[in-house]
Amino acid sequence: xxxxxxxxxxxxxxxxxxxxxxxxxxxxxxxxxxxxxxxxxxxxxxxxxxxxxxxxxxxxxxxxxxxxx
Amino acid sequence: xxxxxxxxxxxxxxxxxxxxxxxxxxxxxxxxxxxxxxxxxxxxxxxxxxxxxxxxxxxxxxxxxxxxxxxxxxxxxxxxxxxxxxxxxxxxxxxxxxxxxxxxxxxxxxxxxxxxxxxxxxxxxxxxxxxxxxxxxxxxxxxxxxxxxxxxxxxxxxxxxxxxxxxxxxxxxxxxxxxxxxxxxxxxxxxxxxxxxxxxxxxxxxxxxxxxxxxxxxxxxxxxxxxxxxxxxxxxxxxxxxxxxxxxxxxxxxxxxxxxxxxxxxxxxxxxxxxxxxxxxxxxxxxxxxxxxxxxxxxxxxxxxxxxxxxxxxxxxxxxxxxxxxxxxxxxxxxxxxxxxxxxxxxxxxxxxxxxxxxxxxxxxxxxxxxxxxxxxxxxxxxxxxxxxxxxxxxxxxxxxxxxxxxxxxxxxxxxxxxxxxxxxxxxxxxxxxxxxxxxxxxxxxxxxxxxxxxxxxxxxxxxxxxxxxxxxxxxxxxxxxxxxxxxxxxxxxxxxxxxxxxxxxxxxxxxxxxxxxxxxxxxxxxxxxxxxxxxxxxxxxxxxxxxxxxxxxxxxxxxxxxxxxxxxxxxxxxxxxxxxxxxxxxxxxxxxxxxxxxxxxxxxxxxxxxxxxxxxxxxxxxxxxxxxxxxxxxxxxxxxxxxxxxxxxxxxxxxxxxxxxxxxxxxxxxxxxxxxxxxxxxxxxxxxxxxxxxxxxxxxxxxxxxxxxxxxx
Lengths: 69, 714
Prior knowledge:
Mean pLDDT of chain A: 87
Distance between the termini of chain A: 30 Å
Strand order of the largest sheet of chain A: 1-4
Number of strands of chain A: 4
Largest sheet of chain A: 2 strands, antiparallel
Radius of gyration of chain A: 17 Å
Order of helices and strands of chain A: HEEEEH
Strand order of the largest sheet of chain B: 9-8-17-16-15-10-14-13-11-12
Mean pLDDT of chain B: 84
Helix content of chain A: 25-40%
Structural class of chain B: alpha+beta
Number of domains of chain A: 1
Low-confidence stretches of chain A: none
Number of helices of chain B: 23
Helix content of chain B: 40-55%
Largest sheet of chain B: 10 strands, mixed
Strand content of chain A: 5-15%
Oligomer: heterodimer
Structural class of chain A: alpha+beta
């Protein structure tokens, strides 16, 4: 399972942003549940809507550390 | 084309011309404010000149390249070219035919690999997998934006490539099906003959060609400006910081079996700075050192460098045979002969008249064989009389013995050979004494316009035949404790005086210092060849002060040894044009003997010069040797029998009259000496002991003074 997860992190290193759900922006809704016209950019994914997966992030961290050594 | 200067750009020179006088104009910015009464001298810049039609046409007046190559202009050339081409093709076909089974096996092995490789490459291209690495890099940097941008680019590419790839794959499948199931056998065979080798070529490892190489030719690179600049930059010469600073005097051109680049180095950088780094230069060209020949350019400023790059290492080039090996003669007075060749295989000429030769180099550098080439050429003039002494005793010059007059040949490292060599030097100096008045006399009779021996004189009078004296390993004689000082004195005198009197002396020495090659000798020798040596000191001592600084690098030659000749025979030669490297022609012992045999046939067995043996002995020392204790004076008729007893060969034919003449020449005149015999007074010619000893002492002092003077001159 670990190998499979690592392989998937290598081939698909991104996932949808948990905060904006992959939209890149936050669009608040009014009282009726309709999205408002003014949208706020997502500060977690910087408007890309994608974030690096945890597994890939851990892999990058250890690789950078090894290279620095 | 130069821009025309309009009259608007010109201003009249102050003061303005007078009315009616022609106006002179000068461009703006080129004027000088001239104060009244002040003289500033002439302008620094040269006057501007306009280009004329003659200037343009003269640019193209040089040598023109022939339209049809030389090999195609003659019938013989065309025939030779055709024969060469057919021979090459036949040989190549035979080689490949014999190896065809091996080729078939290799093709069968590599063709499937090639098919998989080709398919993989197609998939790789179609799916844009070359961008996989860079996308992963963006992910590794946690750069989501870059990764997304690259992914979008990949999607676009794959979409576009799929439109091309899918139809092509379908077409190939259809074609393959048609070829297998429908096509006739010959079409299948043709397709297989084309496709299978192609697939095998794709599938083979990069370092394993399917077809064997027929010729293993030497490595050849095309000399380009970029490569030359890179090689010069690789030298790490201080002052060359940018490759663009290295300019070229002219286009790189073909020169002999190689290419030459004339390089203009940046201001302040000398050509010798690069020459010193020849190893790095060769490394920059990725070539063996013997293929890269940097040198200074005669007549140019010191910043111009010539780099000649040979097509293959010079040591592996076939040296041209010595032209005088089989036939040909030489004229000592006016002729030149081919001594060897330079690095571009161009013949190097050598002349002997009014010169002397010096060959210096460490053991194995090839100086004896180089000097022997000169001597071999010299004896091909039937008038030349060789004098040969080899103080090494190796036998390299034994072939000349039949040509040398009796007493003027010696080979050995023993005391007898040294004594004979010294006696030969004494005789050469005596020859100088005797030749000078003869030359003056014949020149007065109109045989020559200057007081020098020429061919007419030598043919008229056998006493003026040219003498070519070769002393190998001369340092053995010059450093001898008994004969050294006298030998130096004699050599210095002979070199200075014998040149114009038809005496050419060739020295070869392996010890190069002030003791072995005194300045008094080396500085008076015109033709100096420095073969392989160890340092710049020897280079300057042999070739002249400053030669090393001017680019002569005999230090880079490697002497031959048991593993091969290496750079044996290579040396820098000074005294005939610019100091350049050259290699002596190689003449082995059997070939040298054949040349000497021809020389003997030219002389028809006659010995041109008969050297009296008495001339080869030290007469004064011999007389003193036969002098008995208590004798104050002796008659000549009593001395002569004693001398005949001392050396019957030398003094066997000596008479009292000849003895008197030789003693007078040696500086002791015979006097009338009275004796009472049987009570009767008798007076006869004889020698007094006081006069003899005084002359011997005086001569020794002259020798020492002469040697000291020669050393002081240096």
